[in-house]
Amino acid sequence: MGKHLGFCRHGLKQFRNGWADGPAYITQCPIKTGHSYTYDFNVTGQRGTLWWHAHILWLRATVYGAIVIMPKPGTPFPFPQPHREEIIIFGEWWNNDVEDIEKQGNMLGLPPNASDAHTINGKPGPLFPCSEKREQIFGYDSCV
Protein backbone atom coordinates (compact mmCIF):
# COMPACT_ATOMS: atom_id res chain seq x y z
CA MET A 1 0.00 0.00 0.00
CA GLY A 2 2.79 2.43 0.80
CA LYS A 3 0.63 4.74 2.93
CA HIS A 4 0.44 5.28 6.64
CA LEU A 5 -2.78 3.82 8.07
CA GLY A 6 -5.13 3.95 11.00
CA PHE A 7 -7.36 1.15 12.27
CA CYS A 8 -11.02 1.75 13.00
CA ARG A 9 -13.14 -0.60 15.11
CA HIS A 10 -16.90 -0.65 14.51
CA GLY A 11 -19.38 -1.52 17.23
CA LEU A 12 -16.88 -1.38 20.09
CA LYS A 13 -17.72 0.94 22.96
CA GLN A 14 -14.83 3.28 23.67
CA PHE A 15 -14.14 3.48 27.40
CA ARG A 16 -11.63 6.27 27.93
CA ASN A 17 -9.73 5.39 24.78
CA GLY A 18 -11.61 7.19 22.00
CA TRP A 19 -8.31 8.85 21.06
CA ALA A 20 -7.18 5.49 19.66
CA ASP A 21 -10.12 4.80 17.35
CA GLY A 22 -8.04 5.00 14.21
CA PRO A 23 -9.00 8.03 12.09
CA ALA A 24 -5.53 9.21 11.09
CA TYR A 25 -4.81 12.87 11.77
CA ILE A 26 -8.09 13.18 13.70
CA THR A 27 -7.78 11.08 16.85
CA GLN A 28 -4.18 9.94 16.46
CA CYS A 29 -1.18 9.93 14.17
CA PRO A 30 -1.30 7.19 11.54
CA ILE A 31 0.78 4.05 11.86
CA LYS A 32 3.82 4.49 9.64
CA THR A 33 4.41 2.04 6.80
CA GLY A 34 6.60 -0.81 8.05
CA HIS A 35 5.97 0.00 11.73
CA SER A 36 3.61 -1.51 14.30
CA TYR A 37 1.27 -0.19 16.93
CA THR A 38 -0.35 -2.05 19.83
CA TYR A 39 -3.95 -1.12 20.51
CA ASP A 40 -4.92 -1.51 24.15
CA PHE A 41 -8.66 -1.19 24.66
CA ASN A 42 -11.21 -2.19 27.28
CA VAL A 43 -14.00 -4.63 26.35
CA THR A 44 -15.53 -4.97 29.84
CA GLY A 45 -19.23 -5.84 29.60
CA GLN A 46 -19.12 -6.25 25.83
CA ARG A 47 -19.53 -9.36 23.73
CA GLY A 48 -20.32 -10.20 20.17
CA THR A 49 -18.76 -10.15 16.75
CA LEU A 50 -17.55 -6.77 15.59
CA TRP A 51 -15.31 -5.67 12.75
CA TRP A 52 -12.28 -3.53 12.10
CA HIS A 53 -10.69 -2.06 9.00
CA ALA A 54 -7.69 0.03 8.13
CA HIS A 55 -7.93 3.26 6.21
CA ILE A 56 -6.31 6.57 5.48
CA LEU A 57 -8.56 9.56 4.82
CA TRP A 58 -11.37 8.24 2.57
CA LEU A 59 -9.39 5.29 1.26
CA ARG A 60 -10.85 2.19 2.93
CA ALA A 61 -10.01 -0.57 0.46
CA THR A 62 -7.27 -2.10 2.57
CA VAL A 63 -7.37 -4.82 5.21
CA TYR A 64 -10.27 -5.75 7.46
CA GLY A 65 -11.38 -8.50 9.79
CA ALA A 66 -13.52 -9.62 12.70
CA ILE A 67 -13.14 -9.01 16.42
CA VAL A 68 -14.88 -11.73 18.45
CA ILE A 69 -15.51 -10.97 22.13
CA MET A 70 -16.73 -14.08 23.92
CA PRO A 71 -18.70 -13.90 27.18
CA LYS A 72 -16.96 -14.95 30.36
CA PRO A 73 -16.94 -18.74 30.83
CA GLY A 74 -20.14 -19.86 32.54
CA THR A 75 -22.17 -16.87 31.32
CA PRO A 76 -25.34 -18.14 29.62
CA PHE A 77 -26.21 -17.08 26.09
CA PRO A 78 -29.20 -14.65 25.93
CA PHE A 79 -30.63 -16.96 23.22
CA PRO A 80 -30.43 -20.68 22.42
CA GLN A 81 -26.77 -21.58 22.06
CA PRO A 82 -25.94 -22.09 18.38
CA HIS A 83 -24.81 -25.47 17.10
CA ARG A 84 -21.86 -23.76 15.44
CA GLU A 85 -20.72 -20.26 14.62
CA GLU A 86 -19.13 -19.07 11.41
CA ILE A 87 -17.76 -15.59 10.79
CA ILE A 88 -18.78 -14.26 7.40
CA ILE A 89 -17.18 -11.05 6.17
CA PHE A 90 -18.35 -9.37 2.99
CA GLY A 91 -15.82 -7.33 1.05
CA GLU A 92 -15.20 -5.67 -2.28
CA TRP A 93 -12.57 -6.12 -4.98
CA TRP A 94 -11.37 -3.63 -7.57
CA ASN A 95 -9.34 -4.67 -10.62
CA ASN A 96 -7.73 -1.22 -10.79
CA ASP A 97 -5.57 0.63 -8.29
CA VAL A 98 -7.96 1.89 -5.60
CA GLU A 99 -5.99 5.11 -5.22
CA ASP A 100 -6.49 5.86 -8.94
CA ILE A 101 -10.21 5.11 -8.59
CA GLU A 102 -10.45 7.53 -5.66
CA LYS A 103 -8.55 10.25 -7.59
CA GLN A 104 -10.81 9.82 -10.62
CA GLY A 105 -13.93 10.19 -8.46
CA ASN A 106 -12.53 13.35 -6.85
CA MET A 107 -11.62 14.88 -10.24
CA LEU A 108 -15.11 14.20 -11.62
CA GLY A 109 -16.88 15.20 -8.41
CA LEU A 110 -18.49 11.78 -8.22
CA PRO A 111 -18.38 8.89 -5.78
CA PRO A 112 -15.81 6.22 -6.66
CA ASN A 113 -16.78 3.53 -9.15
CA ALA A 114 -18.54 0.46 -7.83
CA SER A 115 -16.27 -2.47 -7.11
CA ASP A 116 -15.61 -5.09 -9.80
CA ALA A 117 -16.57 -7.96 -7.49
CA HIS A 118 -17.84 -8.75 -4.03
CA THR A 119 -16.13 -11.25 -1.79
CA ILE A 120 -17.18 -13.55 1.04
CA ASN A 121 -14.35 -14.17 3.51
CA GLY A 122 -11.92 -12.81 0.93
CA LYS A 123 -13.02 -15.16 -1.86
CA PRO A 124 -15.10 -14.25 -4.91
CA GLY A 125 -18.22 -16.16 -5.89
CA PRO A 126 -20.46 -18.65 -4.10
CA LEU A 127 -17.69 -20.62 -2.41
CA PHE A 128 -19.15 -20.89 1.11
CA PRO A 129 -20.12 -24.53 1.77
CA CYS A 130 -23.57 -24.78 3.32
CA SER A 131 -25.20 -27.99 4.47
CA GLU A 132 -28.53 -28.87 2.88
CA LYS A 133 -29.36 -30.98 5.94
CA ARG A 134 -29.19 -28.13 8.43
CA GLU A 135 -31.05 -24.86 8.48
CA GLN A 136 -28.73 -21.88 8.18
CA ILE A 137 -29.79 -18.70 9.96
CA PHE A 138 -27.67 -15.64 9.39
CA GLY A 139 -27.93 -12.48 11.42
CA TYR A 140 -26.11 -9.48 10.04
CA ASP A 141 -25.19 -5.91 10.82
CA SER A 142 -24.83 -3.58 7.86
CA CYS A 143 -21.98 -1.72 9.63
CA VAL A 144 -22.58 1.41 7.58
TrEMBL record:
Ranges for domain Plastocyanin-like: 10-72, 87-127
Organism name: Populus alba x Populus x berolinensis
MF terms (GO), sorted A to Z: copper ion binding; oxidoreductase activity
InterPro entries for the chain: Cu-oxidase-like_N (IPR011707), Cu-oxidase_2nd (IPR001117), Cu-oxidase_fam (IPR045087), Cupredoxin (IPR008972)
Name of a matching Pfam family: Cu-oxidase
Record Gene3D superfamilies: Cupredoxins - blue copper proteins
Protein known as: Laccase
Coiled-coil blocks: none
Superkingdom of origin organism: Eukaryota
Family label: Belongs to the multicopper oxidase family.
